[in-house]
Write a structure and sequence with these properties.
Blueprint lengths: L2 E8 L10 E8 L2 E9 L8 H7 L3 H5 L4 H12 L3 E4 L2 H14 L7 E6 H8 L8 H8 L8 H17 L9 E4 L8
Parallel strand pairs: 1-4, 4-5
Antiparallel strand pairs: 1-2, 2-3, 5-6
Length: 184
């Protein structure tokens, strides 16, 4: 595939079943070609931990679009290439839970890749494969836990792997959007 949809979500609480922000960075031909960021009104409570981590408050999200209001804008982007995230199980889980909660029609499964998982195979020399560590090691700018910045960082890490000759499609795996998953 030549088009990768790197995305990151932030959540308002420990349930991790709603979004308070989403960032998307599209990679085409080895470079970032498009970016999108939005706060999301999660229509759910905010936990103090999540507010401290993301700096997103209920007041900030109150005027933002809800997930179903935002979906028509982001769906064409999200469907236009291989989904990629860092620690992708988390972001894929939140996306799946939002789609199911709002009863938004979606395929049974989608393909995705995880830059953290790819890094464990292609960059074993990293001290660890956390997003902030990888960004520091690769000199990538990061405002950690800002969905737009995290999505851009994921895209830059992906571009690094592409420049190194990685066949990203080899790391693709299916993700069921219809069944409930628990994070490990």
């Amino acid at each position: 595939m030549e088009r990768y949809i790197c995305f990151d979500v932030e959540t308002p609480n420990i349930s991790n079943d709603r979004m308070s922000a989403i960032g998307i960075s599209v990679v085409e031909n080895g470079a970032v070609s498009e970016e999108f960021y939005s706060l999301v009104n999660p229509e759910a409570r905010f936990d103090p931990f999540n507010i401290q981590l993301t700096h997103i408050t209920p007041e900030m999200a109150a005027e933002a679009p809800t997930f179903p209001e935002l979906w028509p804008t982001i769906a064409p982007i999200m469907r236009s290439g291989l989904l990629v995230a860092h620690n992708a199980q988390f972001d894929m889980s939140v996306l799946s839970k939002c789609l199911r909660h709002y009863k938004i029609p979606c395929p049974d499964s989608v393909s995705y890749a995880c830059t953290c998982r790819i890094g464990k195979k292609l960059a074993p020399w990293m001290p660890d494969h956390k997003l902030d560590t990888m960004c520091r090691e690769l000199f990538i700018e990061l405002d950690h836990h800002h969905a737009g910045s995290d999505a851009r960082a994921c895209a830059e890490i992906l571009c690094y792997y592409i420049r190194k000759g990685a066949a990203i499609g080899d790391f693709s795996r299916p993700y069921s959007l219809k069944e409930t998953r628990t994070l490990k």
